[in-house]
Write a structure and sequence with these properties.
Leucine-rich repeat, LRR (right-handed beta-alpha superhelix), single chain, 7-stranded mixed sheet
Length: 171
């Protein structure tokens, strides 16, 4: 039924002289996404919502991303993110995986500490000079990758004191 509806929609677009590549937004499986992004849903025991914004030369994360409260995985690696990502990251309360590696970020917002379900945080290969103490609030964290940064060991030691034992930290 979905395929038939898609074919009918595309047929009417093309018949009306509209070129889908000219559209600013693409509708796919009831998810609206901007070109170049990927929303993946897998159906095992649960649904996993993933947004792939990697390799898109982004200077910041698009604001509409922070409205996707059911998002579990966000990959914004290999972009040109500078400064710190927006504090609105706190709205992604279901996030389990956050990959911000290979950017030009100089800071991390304290609001990341509000992502209580976060299990994997990759901040590697940025230009971080400090880490917020709030990273210690991430009680479900299993892996933190901060390699390739020039952070303060003192900051890291404070964070480690508050993290659960067994968190893998890649320096």
């Amino acid at each position: 039924m979905k395929n038939l509806l898609t074919i009918l929609l595309l047929t009417s677009l093309f018949a009306g002289g509209c070129n889908i590549s000219e559209q600013q937004k693409v509708i796919s499986d009831n998810n609206i996404k901007t070109p170049g992004t990927q929303v993946t849903e897998t159906h095992n025991n649960s649904t996993k919502n993933t947004l792939d914004l990697s390799n898109q030369n982004l200077a910041k994360i698009p604001n509409d991303v922070f409205n996707k409260s059911n998002l579990e995985e966000l990959d914004a690696s290999n972009n040109n993110l500078t400064g710190a990502i927006q504090a609105e990251i706190r709205h992604l309360g279901n996030l389990r995986i956050l990959n911000l590696s290979n950017n030009k970020m100089t800071g991390v917002p304290a609001e990341i500490g509000q992502l209580s379900k976060l299990e994997y945080l990759d901040l590697s290969n940025n230009q971080l000079t400090g880490l917020p103490n709030e990273l210690g609030n991430l009680q479900n964290l299993k892996k933190l990758d901060i390699s390739g940064n020039d952070y303060s060991e003192q900051d890291l030691n404070k964070i480690i004191e508050n993290l659960p034992t067994g968190v893998q930290i890649i320096k």
